[in-house]
Design goal:
By secondary structure, the chain is mainly alpha-helical. It is built from 10 helices and 3 strands.
Length: 228
């Protein structure tokens, strides 16, 4: 008679991760056009599924932080990368002389697209490397060169609390040189036709804070005791 095996616990998919749910909720509020009332309804549902008051407090902290820090829709990196990877030969991508490798040309075009119209953006090396078929080291090297040659600059931000293990990403913007490159790069024009949301203005700090306040106020009306 064989020994019975313990059941294997189910794999937690990203869709089942409450932090991922918060991230998608924030993206819907900031870029998807849902109203504060619907946002509060979804937030309450996520919080009600939490196992403890401490977990609910942690998720509210993520909500506040992501609302202030999220600069693009979920999947922005992958959607821009998909467009760039359509260039089978990366050397077909026009670039400045200091952009010396195929990986750097793809990263160069990513920066021009992500930073178009003055948008701010991140350069998360692991995610970006995976999306563009390169190595995290290549992302670091390109970022250093882009700062050195004044294509990009770091955006200074006010210090925010860091709830749980959430670590704030460095945020970049194109310089005047970068904006000029973006405006006149033919591939960027094609990208804007495929991803018109890039042309929309990013939510202001005032709008973000107002939306946070409204969502949490409405959630409070719903008699959900999570201490906000």
């Amino acid at each position: 008679m064989g020994v019975s095996e313990s059941p294997t616990p189910p794999t937690v998919r990203p869709a089942d991760n409450p932090q991922k749910k918060i991230d998608r909720l924030v993206a819907a509020l900031l870029f998807g056009g849902i109203a504060a009332g619907e946002g509060a309804r979804r937030l309450v549902g996520i919080l009600n599924a939490a196992e403890s008051e401490n977990e609910r407090q942690r998720l509210v902290g993520y909500f506040r932080a992501f609302m202030l820090e999220r600069h693009a829709p979920v999947g922005m990196v992958e959607s821009v990368a998909k467009f760039i990877m359509a260039f089978v030969n990366p050397y077909a991508i026009d670039a400045l002389p200091w952009v010396s490798t195929g990986a750097q040309r793809r990263l160069y075009l990513f920066a021009l697209i992500a930073g178009t119209c003055g948008r701010t953006f991140g350069m998360a090396k692991n995610r970006l490397a995976a999306a563009l078929g390169t190595y995290p080291r290549a992302v670091d090297e390109f970022t250093r060169k882009a700062l050195r040659y004044y294509l990009m600059t770091v955006v200074e931000r006010a210090t925010l609390p860091e709830p749980g293990r959430y670590r704030r990403m460095t945020v970049y913007a194109l310089t005047k040189t970068g904006i000029t490159e973006s405006l006149f790069h033919p591939a960027v024009n094609d990208a804007l036709e495929e991803m018109p949301w890039l042309l929309k203005e990013q939510p202001t700090r005032e709008y973000r804070e107002k939306m946070i306040h409204e969502v949490l106020q409405i959630a409070r009306i719903g008699h959900i005791a999570f201490g906000v």
